[in-house]
Amino acid sequence: MRRGDGTLSPMPGPKVHTLPNGLRIVSEARPHTQSVSLGITLAQGSRHEAALQNGMTHFSEHLLFKGTPTRHWKEIASETNILGGHFNASTGADSVKLYGSVISRDLGAAFGLLSEMVVHSTFPAEEVERERSVIIEEIAQYDDIPDDLCFERFTQALLLPHPVGRPVIGTAELVGGFSRNALIDYWNSVLVPSRIIISVAGGFDEAALIAECEKSFGHLRDTGAQQEGMESVEGQHGAVAIDRDIEQVNFAFGVTGPDRHNAQRYAWSLYDTILGGGMGSRLFDEIREKRGLAYSIGSSINSLHRCGYLMVSGSTRPETAAEAIEIAMEEIRKLAASGPTESELSIAKRQLERSILLSVEANGVRAGINGDRELYGLPHQSPEQVIALLQAVTLGEVQEVARQVTSFGQPAACLVGPLEQSPGLGAVLQGLEIA
Question: Where are the domains of the chain?
Fold first, then answer.
């Protein structure tokens, strides 16, 4: 509904229902919509794997689409197409997720399909071998894409030896050795109900949803086993240089930053927006618009459980790489020395506010946000509440974040490209300093 001033009045927030076995259901009714989005999140990611299990969560995620006692993989694919084809899955450091969007009357069918895939996948032997080959090709593909390789090696340089620094996808050597029985045992061990979150947003019947969750997941029991890899990440700030015969030098450098519970996370978001958050940011203006040194340049923040980092990344020709990196570091130093201007902060707040308001129109975004907040134990805040917290951030708070960034002195870094053709790049890497 719209208020008299034409703005949308806030909808009721999500409800959280906990089954007797500890499984949580986060439901946000949006009866004005004719669609519904569903997500099943398991609080089990690559950080929770033992060293020799690295890649098992991702491998298992692939196999969830490969067969159940009642469905062949072709039937799973056919049903997803019949339901609209809007289904996917992802694995990260903190979790593995299955999600999809359907029209409201198809929620029961969609939930039945996804829940069976999660709880009753059979990991057929021939599909394990086929998918093993697919994942090894996926690993090779990442190694062949310079910016993907640069990002992967940057995170390793920053976060190892903590498990969160390992590649989510694993390595070709480990993936090549996982047996079907080991994968089945692993997946069965992670189906702990207190670590499972069902998130639904859109037009649906709440009582029917809870009944379906009880039917599909109510039999699961908690093992009481503790998860590994949950300790805080200190960050190592190492450096990696990979020489490749390609056209550009890809670079990434950064420092540890806010985790999901950091009290300064809104100030960090504004700092990131001002530094490298798209057109109009300092990095974009100085490196691309004023000097024409790069097509791709920016910064980003990734916040996880007890871990986070700020990364500056881009790509440029070998002859301009050293200059582009030094300018990026100088912009970081300037923000620490004098902070952003009132105008920059005001524009960043408007940019984030509108990004929030535009994104939460979609049921899929609402379901994803609600599931993540439950995953990380964060309060379920309305968009208006989040915007109010952003608006309350001061210039001094953003400058304090900028000073924290430079306090590390030496950032973690990765360079991928024709490094020997890049004059001065070796000296920049050796003396990389943002303090």
Answer: 15-217, 239-430
pLDDT tens per residue, range 64-85: 999 999 999 999 999 999 999 7
By the 8 A CB rule, do 275 and 174 touch?
Answer: no
CA distance 435 to 433: 6
Catalytic residue among 61, 286, 323, 331: 61
**CATH code of the domain occupying 15-217:** 3.30.830.10
DSSP class of residue 12 equals P
Let me know if 331 is a catalytic residue.
no
Reduced to 3 states, what is the DSSP secondary structure of residue 415?
strand
- Output the pTM of the full model: 0.91
Helix runs in 226-341, H state only: 265-276, 282-283, 318-338
- Rounded to 5 degrees, φ, ψ at 383 are -55, -40
* Domains 15-217 and 239-430 alike in fold: yes
With left for phi above 0 and alpha for psi between -120 and 50, is residue 3 left, alpha or beta?
Answer: beta
CA 43/CA 191 separation, integer angstroms: 9
Sequence-ordered list of residues with C-beta below 8 angstroms from that of 84, at least 6 positions apart, any chain: 100, 101, 102, 103, 106
Give the integer Cα–Cα distance in Å for 276 and 291.
16
Would you state the structure tokens that stand for residue 220, as one six-digit string? Answer: 């699961």
Among all chains, which residue has been given the structure tokens 């809104």?
Answer: 266
- pLDDT tens, 167-179? 999 999 999 999 9
pLDDT tens digits, 393-430: 999 999 999 999 998 878 999 999 999 888 888 777 76
Q: What's the topology of domain 239-430? A: Cytochrome Bc1 Complex; Chain A, domain 1 (3.30.830)
